[in-house]
Amino acid sequence: MFKVLGYVLLIGVLFFAALPARADSWLPNMVHYINGQVIAPTNLAAPNWDAMPAETTTELATHLRWSAVPGASVYELWSNGSKTLFSNAAAVLHYTQAGLKQIKVRACRQDGCGAFSELAQINVATLMTSKITNANGQALLFDGDEVLIGLNLADIQGDSLVEYSLDGISWHTAIQENGQYQIGLGSLGSNAYSLKLKVAGQDVSPLQFVVAGQPSLEVYELSVSNWDDPIQPFNQAVSTPLGGKFVLHWQPSPVVAEAPIGYYRVYRNGQPRGVHFGVAGYLKHKYQDNAFHVDYSLDEVGKMTFSVRACNRMGEQFNDEVDCGPAAQVWVYSGLDIGSPVAPSMPVSMFAASKYGQPIDDSLDEITVEPGETFYLHWATSNEVEPPTRGFYRIVKNGRSGGFVFGTVPYLKRRFNDDLFHVDRALDEPGDYVYGIRPCNRIDEIDGVPAQEECGPVSRTVKVKVASAEPELDIQHTGTLQSRQVWDTDNFTVQVQHTGGAAVQSLAVSLDGTTWVNLNQVGGEYSHSFQRLVPGNYQLYVRANNKVLTPLAFDVIRYPTQRPAQAVSALSISLWDGPVGAAKSVQANLGDKVVLHWRGSTQVAPQPYGYYQLMADNGTETIIVATAPQLQQKYQDDLFHFDKLVVGSGRLSYQIAACNRLAEVRNPLADCGPGSEAIVFADMHDSMGVRWASAHIVVGETVDLHWNAEQISRCEPTTPNDAIKIAPNGQVSARFFRPSPNITTGWRCYNLAGEDMGEFSVTLSVEKLLAPQSLRKQRVN
Predict the structure, then answer these.
(1) Side-chain half-sphere exposure of 51, counting CA atoms within 13 A
(2) pLDDT tens digits for range 136-158
(3) Which of 220, 357, 715, 775 could hold 626 in an S-S bridge, CB 3.0 to 4.6 Å?
(4) pLDDT tens digit sequence for 668-692
(5) Contact partners, residue 197, CB within 8 Å, separation at least 6
(6) Are residues 530 and 492 in contact, defined by beta-carbon separation less than 8 angstroms?
(7) Predicted TM-score of the model (pTM)
């Protein structure tokens, strides 16, 4: 913490004020070092001691004197192996550690040093010990901490008065408590401090301490030298051969705390190269001083910027932006002479493109212009680019050179009035053009070999999109959308997307070039369905903004069909109100509905070719092309459903066959595959009763009222209803125009003799009428 003070004479071979060396590195008198160089001995006489105290204490000044030696320009004073240089035959030492000190001195000049004096001894006793902490008792001090100092004096001092000052002007008295002196300095900002002290009115060595924070100053005396060259203070540039070593040197910063809080960060071309807490042992031995030294070597040609920042770690992790102060810089010309132009190593820091009247925005990745419209490229200057005509900027267009620029033309300077580079461009051909900028220098030679690359990395890129004067459209139709041929079973659909170019004012499509259908945009897309087309050759015409585009040719082909080879599977039957299951038979009453269910066959073609045939054992046949809308809504599944009304007594068996129309008209004998397994339903009659012919009808459907004719001859409604009509022959029918899940009517019935046969209640369900859907939506693939 404390340093030995001395007076220094700066001579040509000396760089730093004090050059300590280890005791075990002493050499015999016939050979020794000055600044790391072996110097021959001289005939300078050995000095004699004039004043040498036998005892002293730490912190207090210790005065030494010796006889002057004629011809000497500097004196080396060695104390326990540490060397200090003095210009006169006297020294004032401030010891910081107690113990026995062995001291000797010798005279030196430019060509070497003489013999040492006699070895003297001084017994150094402890004057005081100190402890510096913050309010929490922590020894590491940070910006804004309250600084507390405790001093303990040796017993020989008794109750001496202790005074302190930070500025050397205002002095304060330390408070003595339980034999210890307490000093409170309050909250201090980040800096290096030297607290001046007096004990019993006598000056003692100041207490040195650092309050860590982000340093505000650059490191001191940053310089660079080649490995075999002597240190040249403030040397800012060096030329080094490829693979050769060079060394960075700088003085320790007084505002950097001790490791591991304090450190130095080295950068190469702005990129971190390492963290340094101290000096490597071999460099300490090489230079034998108190400076920092870091060595590097480079295997690539170019001008490299090396920077050093003084830092204090303010958190758990290293964070240069918070920890480190400003950077000091030096330059290394690797494989080049100092001052030679080099290829820039970094891209320009900003690049943007804009149109007339738009602000410069380097966050935009794309701009759109019309053919022939002027646009502008803007970029920041690079400090690696030489002045014109040695330095320039190359425009990169679609990965190739698009010209070079030495400066901004005057009218663009006046228009933008800033420090950026600007250039204007215009493009006539629609398309996408990607622009960037490379900083460049004209390099003639590198160690006598022509340079292979004169430009640095390309900047970020910006796409300039030159829009077409016509709308750019992506036109797809059923065949292209599905990557197959267009079948005559398809609903032929056209989809058009506007992908660029001019705005769409109007859009229409046609299949003959004369009858046009205007398209409206829905969800960012234009579309139209021509429904199913008959087989043949077609041309799709598109008219955009009243201009007809080149037609697209396509063919509509008859859907390939063949007679199904497999029987329908999963055939079952249920009552209208019963669940779908696997039942193969069911019993129902007259007027009830039963429903057949089966899974669609993958061998049945879409409409208009595919269908199913329902075959009863009484010889009736029914063609089925789709599930009725009411049944689709009722079941909402992927099965086929078909309902039958029980209108007669007896037992019936049914089969379903999958069919494809092979000719122009349906022919079940040729079209249909094998029949499915049979299902059965039978009716059951009550001895007497009244019922509707069908318990489930749709809106607008007429339904008759049935009764057991052997016992009942006529029936009359007990509640009048306009939907019920009675014919002159006594036949009762009804027709409802509003859906209702449960319509109950009461009836009083009579026999042929006019006798009252009782009152009956009949329920009817009227469902909403739905539009039919195609068979294709019922297919299961």
Answers:
(1) 9
(2) 888 778 888 898 998 888 765 55
(3) 775
(4) 999 999 998 888 876 555 456 788 8
(5) 59, 151, 162, 163, 164, 203, 204, 205, 206, 207
(6) yes
(7) 0.39
